């Protein structure tokens, strides 16, 4: 049993220990309940739910800033996936193109800033800190996700009035964003130990993914399903929501262990087998 300095039981740690002892099905159920509770909370607190998408991009930007701080302060890129950064730059570049030709707004500016910083991270890892890059651990073949995303975009894309190439590009960046974190998860799976700055970065991505997913779900609820009709017909509206949900669940397990580690006062995150 965990106690605070005053001798009282630590309820947060006690709850974490209780959850840890539950079987996988119970944990999954609790995760769904927690997610639904967060959605209800956000729907009540946030007046303009479009701000959730801005908050998601801001969280991603904060994660990138954490990476920049790590690279500058520690002069090492150990534990970081260059391939994940390259996939991020790829979907951001495509999304920026779509923003310029389809709908220029505040998201375009945020994506521009995030893309510039991501390109700086890629340059630093590839050239300045190449000696500390764990190339043998960063062994996820990115064509495993790029090619399927491109093929899926060819067959399932928006049915709006925009140019066909632009609609396919839009779908491609949505699908690629959903799986862009896979190489980073592979690096963490291979090392099992995640130092603090990398953990902060991946957690920021998890928060961004959840906020983005909450944005879409709440927008659909607010419009009473009209948003799905506005996105077009066929499988595309469902695929947008599915992509957002996939992004959230990909990082949900890691975020759980991250919060547990922070609550326990640990600076280094040790992942059990099979977490990522």
Question: What's this, in brief?
Answer:
With 276 residues, the protein is mainly alpha-helical. The chain has helices at residues 11-21, 24-45, 51-74, 82-102, 106-128, 143-155, 164-179, 182-191, 196-222, 226-230, 236-263; strands at residues 193-194, 269-270.
- The shape is globular
What number is the mean pLDDT?
A: 79
By DSSP (H or I, 4+ residues per run), the number of helices equals 11
Percent strand: under 5%
What is the helix/strand order?
HHHHHHHHEHHHE
Number of domains: 1
The N- and C-terminal alpha carbons lie at a distance of 28 Å
What composes the largest sheet? Answer: 2 strands, antiparallel
Percent helix? over 70%
* Structural class label: mainly alpha
Using DSSP, what is the number of strands? 2
Neighbour order of strands in the largest sheet: 1-2
What integer value in Å does the Rg equal? 20 Å
The low-pLDDT segments are 1-5
What does this structure look like?
This protein has 276 residues and is mainly α. It has one domain (49-270). The chain is built from eleven helices and two strands. The protein has helices at residues 11-21, 24-45, 51-74, 82-102, 106-128, 143-155, 164-179, 182-191, 196-222, 226-230, 236-263; strands at 193-194, 269-270. A two-stranded antiparallel sheet has the order 1-2. Helix 4 (82-102) packs antiparallel against helix 7 (164-179). The longest helix is centred in the last third of the chain and has 28 residues, at 236-263. The two termini are 28 Å apart.
């Amino acid at each position: 049993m965990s106690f605070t300095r005053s001798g009282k039981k630590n309820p947060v740690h006690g709850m974490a220990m209780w959850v840890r002892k539950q079987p996988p099905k119970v944990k999954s159920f609790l995760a769904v309940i927690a997610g639904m509770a967060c959605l209800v909370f956000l729907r009540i607190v946030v007046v303009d739910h479009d701000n959730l998408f801005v908050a998601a991009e801001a969280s991603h930007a904060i994660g990138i800033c954490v990476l920049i701080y790590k690279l500058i302060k520690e002069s090492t890129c150990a534990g970081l996936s260059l391939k994940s950064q390259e996939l991020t730059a790829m979907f951001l570049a495509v999304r920026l193109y779509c923003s310029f030709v389809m709908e220029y707004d505040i998201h375009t500016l945020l994506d521009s800033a995030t893309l510039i910083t991501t390109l700086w991270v890629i340059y630093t890892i590839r050239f300045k800190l190449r000696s500390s890059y764990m190339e043998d651990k960063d062994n996820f073949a990115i064509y495993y996700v790029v090619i399927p995303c491109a093929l899926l975009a060819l067959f399932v894309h928006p049915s709006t009035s925009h140019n066909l190439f632009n609609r396919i590009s839009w779908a491609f960046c949505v699908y690629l964003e959903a799986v862009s974190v896979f190489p980073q998860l592979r690096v963490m799976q291979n090392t099992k130990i995640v130092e603090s700055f990398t953990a902060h970065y991946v957690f920021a991505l998890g928060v961004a993914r959840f906020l983005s997913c909450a944005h879409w779900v709440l927008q659909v609820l607010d419009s009473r399903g009209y948003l799905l009709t506005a996105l077009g017909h066929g499988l595309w509206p469902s695929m947008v929501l599915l992509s957002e949900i996939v992004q959230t669940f990909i990082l949900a397990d890691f975020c759980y262990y991250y919060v547990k580690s922070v609550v326990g006062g640990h600076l280094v995150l040790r992942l059990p087998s099979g977490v990522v």
